[in-house]
Amino acid sequence: MKRKLIAAIGVATMIVGIAACGSDKKDDDKKADGGSKPAASASSITVWLTVDAQHNWPELVKAADDAIVAKHPGLKVKHEYYAWPDKNAKLDAVLATDKAPDVVEMGNSEMVPYMAEGAFAQLDPSKFDNSSAWLDGLKQSVTYDGQTYGVPYYAAARIATWRKDIAADAGITATPKNWTELTADLDKIQAKEGPKFNAWYQPSRDWYAAMSFVYDAGGAIATNEGGQWKGSLESPQAIQGLTTWKNAIGKYMHGDLTKDESDRYIVYGQGKSALIYAPGWEGPSAADPKYDKTGGKLKDNLVNFVMPGPSGKNIPVFLGGSDLAVPSKSKNVDLASEWINDFTNSAGQKILMSKGNLPNNNTQLATLKADPASAVTAEAAESSWFVPTAPGWGSVEKAQTLQTMLQNIATGKSSVADAAKAADADMDKVLNVKN
């Protein structure tokens, strides 16, 4: 979900490399049966995941490895882990070679340009558990021209998490129910803890959080006008949302205003922040003894609640998440598919749910609202937004257009209006251009 500007050579060589193999009979066979037969001599598969899996649910990775090895004795599962900003540049480079991984994790908003270029093998959804109940937003992200090119991994809805001990020290005994209560509580916490403390630790480059304010105010990142996509961050509604976000950052965020959210849970574990607005797994991860630098205070003092929006309603969340895909150049499509199913089946989803994630399917999602431990996340997911489904949206993400805009606003480099105008202009150049 967090992306780095793609290397130019990666774009060119990826497209040329894929086109060169587009008429290969082996690729046609893959599309006909949902995956080619693995070579008899296959002794290993290579799986690329982001560091989220490495740090936060390594037991799920091991369970999937054990399951496929039990079916294929002697098989080796090789793992490579990447930070979000680095993954795609590496992927684009290897897709033009014969060294593509067999499984790769993708942010759900990253899938379209890769599917359009034939970078991923077509998969048979019937081979994957719960495929008939995949969450709509995730199902759309793995579907192109009516065919399936990936498997939803998990979803994430952002929620508010704060420390009840810090709130109590400021005289606060209950979680806020609306924006007015939230800002009043944060004012009390900020005054109590001092100017160097983050009443709300909110990295400026976290565009998923910032755009929730835009959508809460009735705005949008981009709109489709007569079949053409156009940036809409200059609209009065979007400006209102961005201004509210800027004001909150200015009052409550006293950390590095050039950071993204990739290490937010680690920073939160340092104990110098009261509130984060983040995917549900980040609070428990911060409380892990590896990251909790407060002497164990986080474990028993973290409280989740649905983030109230300035509009008076729950703030709409980006129902993001990850998908798993099999590069079309993989020589082990069937084995890769098996590993993916072992990783994303119902048992795997239970592990992900225990870490604060939403499952990839509606069947298991329904169980969350009845469980006090997960009801907040499930409720937050009921109001959501998704990225523009424009042909060139991938270029917007790769160029980090929104992140740049937000950093410029937060640091005072640009006014809200000027930064929004620049972002719209940059988006208008690429939104209607197929990646």
UniProtKB/TrEMBL annotation:
The keyword Signal appears for this protein: yes
InterPro entries: SBP
Gene3D superfamilies on file: Periplasmic binding protein-like II
Signal peptide residues on this chain, from the entry's feature table: 1-19
Record keywords, A-Z: Signal, Transport
SUPFAM superfamilies recorded: Periplasmic binding protein-like II
Family according to the record: Belongs to the bacterial solute-binding protein 1 family.
PANTHER family: MALTOSE-BINDING PERIPLASMIC PROTEIN, MALTOSE_MALTODEXTRIN-BINDING PERIPLASMIC PROTEIN
Protein name as catalogued: Sugar ABC transporter substrate-binding protein
